[in-house]
Each structure stands twice: as C-alpha cells, then as structure tokens.
Amino acid sequence: MKRCQLAATQNANESLHNAIWSKCSKEKFYTKRTVRFRATSAIAEFSAGPVWAHKKLMEAYGLATGADSTRLARQRQQKRLDDSQYAAKKKMVKRRQQRREARRKLLAELQEAKGGQAYGAGIT
Predict the structure, then answer these.
(1) Chain-wide mean pLDDT for the chain?
(2) In 3D, which of 97, 79, 77 has the Cα closest to residue 87?
(3) What is the DSSP letter of 122?
(4) Which stretches does the entry tag as region Disordered (predicted)?
(5) Structural domain contains residue 39
(6) What burial letters (b/e) apply to 54-76, b meaning 16+ CB within 10 Å?
(7) For residue 50, how many other CB atoms are within 10 A of its CB?
(8) pLDDT one-digit tens code per residue, 63-117
(9) 0.70 exceeded by the pTM?
C-alpha cells in the first residue's frame, strides 16, 4: 500500500511490458527478428537507460552508431529524467499543500475550542 500511496509503480513487470508493447504494437505484424530486437531494446532501456542501451544494442547487432542516433538517445534519456523530476516536484508541492491545510484546520479547531478568534504574532 505504501507504494500505491506514493503513486509509484505497483508492479515493475507492468512497466516493462508497457515499454515492450510501446516499441512493438500488438496490432501490427512484425518478423521474429524485429520483435526480438525491439523487446531487447525495451528491456535494455528499462534497465539501464536509452544511451547505454543504444550503445550496447548497436554493438551486439554489429551496427554503426551515428551521431544522430546517439544524440536522440541522449535526448530520450534527458526527457526521462526531466519527467521524473517534474513528477517528484509535483508530488512534493501537493504534500506541502496538504500539510498546510491540515495545520490550518487544526488551528481553526483549537481557536474554536478556546472560544473565538485568537490574535497574536505568528498566528494565521
């Protein structure tokens, strides 16, 4: 339940399957070689990131790595990091807002219990 509360992936296999099917759609026919290459590519990217996966896959299949393909792999990796950082920041902002709201409710309940509005330095 803790993973679900943090909006983290509940099951790593689901994420891996999503990565594989995003590279190799179920609706279209692919040759066995293509499916194997795309599945291997998805697994490598999922495990180690796009740059490392690109380099190792090109070596494994005996293909030359060009400057453009390496640049695109770096861009994918940077986008992946940026998206992750944005999501983490968004979660932190939401948590801060929830804590602030809980603090305000608690103060309001305490003031009501004391019998009215309290005035003083630092009281919101």
Answers:
(1) 79
(2) 79
(3) T
(4) 69-101
(5) no
(6) bbebbeeeeeeeeeeeeeebeeb
(7) 21
(8) 777 788 788 888 888 888 888 788 888 888 888 899 999 999 988 888 888 776 5
(9) no
Query: Residue 33 falls within a domain, yes or no?
Result: no
Position 116 in a domain: no
Residue 111 to residue 52: CA distance in whole angstroms:
59
- Tally of domains in the chain: 1
Residue with tokens 């393909």: 69
- Alpha-carbon distance 12 to 24, whole Å? 19
81 in any annotated domain: yes
DSSP state of 11: -
- Three-class SS of residue 88? helix
Other beta carbons less than 10 A from residue 41's beta carbon: 20
DSSP state of 116: S
Residue whose token pair is 């180690």: 48
Q: How far is CA 73 from CA 57, 77, 103, 117, in A?
A: 12, 6, 45, 59
Instruction: Work out the burial of residue 42: count CB atoms within 10 Å of its CB; fewer than 13 is exposed, 13-18 middle, 19 or more buried.
Output: buried
- Domain residues for 72? 67-111
